[in-house]
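Notes from hallway chat w/ T.B., transcribed later so I don't forget. T.B. wanted the structure written out for a chain they're using in a teaching module, and asked if we could keep both sequence and structure tokens in one place. Agreed to drop them here.
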Amino acid sequence: MMSKVFRKAAAVIVSFAMIFVMQLNVPFSLKASAAVEAIWPMDPEYKTITTYFSEYRNTVNPESSEYHNAIDISGQTGLNIYAVRAGRVVTSGWLGGYGYIIILFHEDLGVYTFYAHCSELDVYEGDTVAQGQIIGKVGNTGNSYGSHLHFGICSSLLNNWPARTYYDPLSFFSYTDSPSTDPGTSNSSDCGCSTDYAGIYTTKNVVTFLYIRSGHGSNYSALGQIPAGSTVKVTMGDGSWAHVEFNGITGYSSMDYLEKIGDIESNMSISGANIPSGSLTPGTAFSVQGEIKSDVPIAKVWGGVYNTNGERTAEFAEAAPRTYSYNINTYFDKQIRFENLTTGTYQYKIEAVDTNGTNFVLISEVFSIGSDPIKGDLNDDGSVTVADAVLLQSFLIHRTELTAAQYGTADINSDNSVDVFDMVSMKKLIFGSR
């Protein structure tokens, strides 16, 4: 009898032990998901959900598109996407119907968050990102009905695809609109400040100097000083604190002691650009590269490959970064495929406009696929004739305009200018040296 009692007691103890072990092996995210704080993945004003998470995704035909594995948040192309929590980038690229997608692994929770249909990817695989960091831009890539963010949470990946158990983002996390920052550390560029405050400022009610601090607040450490009466460049602000640049120092100053005296003049350039020239072999890939820098936030960047009549081809891209710098490698290089072009003459052009409304042509280059364009053949009929001379003469007397491709072939003497000397060269092409 006693042996039966001991056996029953032992069985109970083993059962409790197994339950305890099982609890230890359940991810934290499954036990206390409602208590997990996160940052909303878009700016606070964008919270309209167009498609909700479907609980059936985990139980009924998980591969069916009928059962939504995430939430869709409405928003136009180019809006910022934020990391909801700190994590590591495990995927940043194209993934079938997801289009351009970013997947973060959150080791403390044992789950992945994924952000799909992006128009731009601002992080790379292997990067460690902070909570609230901008990781990409909203878009409409892949199988998408319109610009929006497809935001989801899953327990694992299968061949880099979100898989296994999916969680409802609206109940898994409790959200705040912006990340908190401890005193003594920088607020980063994701602090919610607006470029509406950008401009040239001077100090006001300052007798000696105004501190430049490491964050938004007088409790942050001082990085430098702005002497009274000095002018300072402000790139962003929130009405209380401004992002300032002065004498090589970048930081934050109180807007209570700053007064705007003018706008920042538009100035934009591109460096490290890879520009096609001459003739490319059909099917040859070409890397789109270049970093745009602007003194005023870049409102929009667009461009790609155009036909000689000025119409754009399918190899075209655009983005709305609203930042002071933009690397066209990150998104444009994936969208513009020179290897898809057929034989002919084209123009490669990249343009941008800043928030002042000033437009810049950053790249404009005529190139060909298959063969070099014939110098002097303005009408592109394969030979240089009197008809080409008539077109050139009409341009020289300001009666007509030339397309970019025509201008390139009209520069017969290759001095980067179309003038009367090119007419002399064309005459020799048509009539010889007589």
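Follow-up for T.B.: The first strand starts at residue 36 and ends at 39. Might be a good example for the class.
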